Amino acid sequence: MDNSTINKILNFLVTNEGKKLPGTWIKFKLGNNIPLTKEELNVKGNLDFSDSQITQLPEGLKVGGDLYLNRTNIKSLPEGLKVGGNLSLLKCKNLTLLPKGLDVGGWLVLRGTNIISLPEGLKVGGGLDLEGTNIKQLPKDLYVSGKLDLSFTKITSLPEGLYVGKNLFLNNCYDLKSLPKGLKVGGGVNITDSSLTKYTEEELRKMIEPGFIKGDIIRYG
Question: Which sign does the torsion angle of CA 52, 55, 59, 62 carry?
Answer without folding.
Answer: positive
